[in-house]
Each structure stands twice: as structure tokens, then as C-alpha cells.
Amino acid sequence: MAYTPDQNHRRPDDADDQAVRAAGLVSEALETVERARGHLYSFHQLTGSAHATLHEAVGLLREAGQDELARLLAAELVGRDVLPGRWTFQIVEAYDDDYYATFRAVEKEVRDRLTGGRRHVYEAELKQRSQAAGEAAELEARSPVGGEANLA
Known about the structure:
single chain, mainly alpha, 0% strand
């Protein structure tokens, strides 16, 4: 039996195809931003890990009598900003507080206005159409062709 969207995923009566699709695209864009945010946190953590590894290398260089190289690393890289005036935590915070927070708020506003705040209405309808088409194809495959049943 084909899927029928529940009330949380059903199109409001006043929402037309363009509105549902537009809300779906804005939500899709937010999903991409969520992925980008995850990569930003990976950048933050990987940079922090590199920084900790660098500290270890500086210590080993000193122990090995390579004071000049230890001083070079310490002077040029230890504590260095990754962007002028910013460490990665500041980049993450700025992204979260400005772009990400704004994007989430605007996406919610679009959903509120176009789909009554319901999420994934477009996808729920796509699921419904896809499963209905699959059932129709299954029925067609099982119907007698030339007097014989075509059992799939």
C-alpha cells in the first residue's frame, strides 16, 4: 500500500506546488549548510589536533638539541591565528551566531508561511508519488499478458 503523508507532512490546503517546492528547496539548502557547518567543526577540531601535535614536536626538537627549529616552530606556528585575529573557535562562533542562526531562522519563516511550519512536505509527496508508481508498475507486471500471468 502506498504511503500517505501524516498530518505533520501533509500539504496545507492553501499551499500550491510552487510554494511546496520552494519551501523544500530552502530546507534542502539548510541541509547543505548543516553539512558545511559540520565540516567547519571538523576544520576546528583538526586544526586544534595539529596544534597539539605541533606542541609535541617542539618539545621533541628541544630534547634533540634542535633549538633553532623548535624556536622557528614556536615563533611561526604555535598560537598563530588561522585568519587575521582569529582562531578556529572564533570562526565557528561567528559562523554559528551570524550566518547559521540567520539561515535557520529564515528557513523556519519560509516553512511557517508556505507549509504551516511543516517539514519535508515536498519529500513526503515525492515518497507518496514514488511508492504509488511502484505499486502501479508491480500491478502491471502481474497482470495477464497474452493470456499468461507474468509473476514477478
